[in-house]
Design goal:
Strand content: under 5%
Number of helices: 11
Helix content: over 70%
CATH superfamily of the largest domain: Tetratricopeptide repeat domain
Shape: elongated
Structural class: mainly alpha
Mean pLDDT: 79
């Protein structure tokens, strides 16, 4: 990333950094587990409160929970047809669980069926407006559609719900950096991202130093 420090032409900068945005964008969490399952670091995530967990675990059968896990496994393995079939079936039987819609949205996203992905992400957020993963995914869909300010709003909502959501922190930093050119805010969220890492990210560390230099030069 540091090689950009040598580029002064703003048009070339925009082209290169736009490509970089697509390459470095942290993808949405791999899948959402059922509320009865545990949260594993950044990847599969929990979407409900403790009270909701108890209520939903009572209403969802053991067989359905196992089927849901099969869907997550298929999604992790990029067996998208199988994952789509499982989550569609799950939704027919359990239409009020937001996580299933987010997982289905992720399936469509991976298949580059962006309109279908947006429809499912919207449904997930209708059921649970505080689901950070759905906000992060919808933001990425908005970026693809060129709706940058809508993407910003969703990334912000994601980190309001889950301040330690490392993916959304990084994606928001990139958005401020590449698209909105709000460098101070980009640095702020890059630093939050860095503080949440278990292992250092030297590339981003160098890029933060470069951005800080551009502010001084300005």
């Amino acid at each position: 990333m540091y090689f950009i420090k040598f580029i002064t032409n703003s048009v070339i900068y925009a082209i290169i950094t736009s490509v970089m945005y697509r390459n470095r964008l942290i993808f949405i969490t791999s899948a959402l587990f059922l509320s009865a399952c545990s949260q594993e670091n950044i990847k599969p995530a929990d979407e409900t409160t403790a009270t909701d967990k108890t209520e939903q675990s009572r209403s969802i059968s053991k067989a359905s929970r196992e089927k849901y896990r099969d869907g997550i496994t298929a999604l992790h393995n990029d067996d998208l047809s199988k994952a789509q079939r499982i989550f569609n079936e799950f939704i027919r039987n359990n239409p009020n669980l937001a996580g299933a819609y987010t997982n289905l949205a992720l399936v469509h996203f991976k298949k580059k069926e962006y309109e279908k992905s947006l429809k499912q992400a919207n449904k997930a957020l209708e059921l649970n407006p505080k689901q950070a993963q759905a906000h992060n995914l919808r933001a990425q869909l908005y970026v693809i559609d060129g709706k940058i300010h809508k993407a910003k709003d969703d990334y912000i909502k994601a980190i309001e719900v889950k301040p330690d959501y490392i993916n959304a922190q990084y994606n928001l930093a990139l958005l401020y950096d590449i698209y909105l050119q709000e460098i101070s805010l980009a640095i702020k969220h890059y630093k939050i991202y860095m503080s949440l890492l278990k292992k250092p990210d030297e590339t981003t560390k160098e890029w933060i130093t470069h951005l800080q230099g551009t502010l001084k030069d300005g």
